[in-house]
Amino acid sequence: MKMSTRDLAINAILAALYVVFTTINPIGTGAIQLRVSEMLAMVPFFNRKYIPGLLIGVVIANAFSSLGPIDVAVGLSISVIAYTISYFVKNVWVNAVQYSLLCAIIVPLMLWQVLGIPYWPTFVAIFISNLIVTLIGTFLISRFGDRMMLTRSIEQ
């Protein structure tokens, strides 16, 4: 996949925004989280050229977590799996749900293993909060993505 200078710049901006929105959010990590930055994680479902920017953003943002390397590995894994699934599932709304579901399955598992936090309440909390955020992000990107040059097709 060939990237223009503009695409590289947008990837860098997306990564930086993801990091900022995650790290300034007091409830962006843990068992109960509302990670506004997950709205940006929906961008690659519209244009795959922006996967690198989001992956870099996830790695950097999760490195600031109290769990450090394990949170980096888990966050990166969730994103890679979700973006791989999105290669086969072209509906952005379905992809928002599958991303939220992956987060809800894997993050509580990590928190249970590492911190002993109960799995099912964490699953419910993360799924609901992540689903709300990702659906809002999907709506906003589908509505305003062209204006921000985020949803233009790869072939253009």
From TrEMBL:
Keywords: Membrane, Transmembrane, Transmembrane helix. InterPro entries: QueT (IPR010387). The keyword Protease does not apply. The chain crosses the membrane at residues 12-34, 54-85, 92-113, 119-142. Pfam families: QueT (PF06177). This is Queuosine transporter QueT. It comes from Phocicoccus schoeneichii. The gene is queT.
